[in-house]
Amino acid sequence: MLDRNPTFPRAHSNLSQVLRRKGEMDNALIEAEKAIEVEPTRARGYLNKAWSLIELKRVDEAQVWFEKAIAVEPDNEIGHLNLADHYRRIRQLDLAVKHYRLALDIKPNLSRIYANLAGTLRWWDTYKFQGDLALLRGDEDSAMKLYEQSNKLNSNAPDVLARIAWLAQAQGNQVMAQEYSQKAVKLAPYIFSDESELLKNFRFLPE
Length: 207
What we know:
Number of strands: 0
Distance between the termini: 60 Å
Shape: elongated
């Protein structure tokens, strides 16, 4: 196809993917760049370039190309999915969750998005339990950071909100304690009767 029509848009992208599977990353990158030149308003060339850079261990250069893919095709669910996968790999999990959810808004029946989102959200529990362990060691600062990481991934978990509220009060941050206790009570009135009861009695909820 390229021999007959060197400007055929999809051929360069397809060839880039084939070359990546064969491990020819330098050539895959070249073909991705040709795809962008021929078809600058479609996402796939940018995505192929990003993944080629990652395979070449040039991870820091890749993100801008994922972002350009979304910029040229904001409603391309694969662009958001790929950027989310990238964020997950570099442990920017809150941004990964954000783009998985944007991908689902565009394509709600794509099972791969659900699977990758579910895998990322499992870190919510991991951060929460790591925070508990840090608090048991007496390391309140580390515990708060871990609870906040958990909350970034899942802002509707009343037990995490309660942990943040209780710890903020213990550290003398009454404004933060009030804010998070209100959120926890609103989400789980069946657990917490009111904010003062939460702040007075909560330490660890039964798991």
